[in-house]
Amino acid sequence: MALLEVKNISKNFGSTSVLKDINFEVEKGEVLVLIGSSGSGKTTLLRCLNFLETPDTGRIILNGETLVDAGSGSKRESESGIRKKRLHFGMVFQSFNLFSQYNVLRNVTLAMDILSKESLKKPSPFRLGELREYRRKCAEIYAENEKKALALIERVGLIDKVKNYPCELSGGQCQRVAIARALALSPDILCFDEPTSALDPELTGEVLRVIKGLKSSDRTMIVVTHEMEFARGVADKVIFMADGVIEETGTPEEVFGNPKSPKTKAFLSKASEVV
């Protein structure tokens, strides 16, 4: 059974059809790369997976559990339910989305600490013993979260920047912090939405090297990118999207080396001209 199954996903914005009957699967440990021109539906697809958009039709199944069934007619899910499902997916956005008021370490630990605190039973304010035990457990969990965060920050090559604030970092460094933050919650699938599009060319390489270094047999990733050489080198499977549909799917060798669709050929030809 595939880790992720996407079945018949469609999404409209008013009269504009952005996604049209999207179907694909992702195996555990696989890196799926989505390529295609701007406006082809790649980002909207990622946003549907991360519960930032709601598809109009179709199902999203993770580990055999149906997370989304747009055709079931069920009532709208609660925000807490959506947030719980969203934790299955880590999202790295184009524009970093770091908290400017927090340093690097706090940007990575914040979500972990909030979730950890929510998992604890709240003490009665009138029982000092319960309150002391609650505070002890919080301190213990926060220390573990900080230890995990420091290991992730070191992994993305920023251990010397833990006390720095986003305004003191380059764009590439901010994006690496965003990657560490996404990893901190141990998602089943890590998603990247054009992670280098907001970066100067000289900073792109450092972020791509970090992403490529994350590839392993047990880490599953979905990457939207316009960096074709990177896509070819990191992907296990490539999907080319055009006009809201999956135009072609295959291995990097098949899609880049011997594309079947005229639209794929045209896109790759233009991409090579830009390079």
TrEMBL record:
How is the protein disposed in the membrane? Answer: Peripheral membrane protein
Q: Which UniProt keywords apply?
A: Amino-acid transport, ATP-binding, Cell membrane, Membrane, Nucleotide-binding, Transport
- Domain (ABC transporter) spans 4-268
Could you tell me the superkingdom of the organism this chain comes from?
Bacteria
Q: Which InterPro entries match?
A: AAA+_ATPase, ABC_ATPase_HisP-typ, ABC_transporter-like_ATP-bd, ABC_transporter-like_CS, MetN_ABC_transporter-like, P-loop_NTPase
Q: Where in the cell is it found?
A: Cell membrane
GO terms for cellular component: plasma membrane
A UniProt-annotated Pfam family: ABC_tran
One GO MF annotation is: ABC-type amino acid transporter activity
Similarity comment text for this entry? Belongs to the ABC transporter superfamily.
Quote the protein name from its UniProt record: Amino acid ABC transporter ATP-binding protein
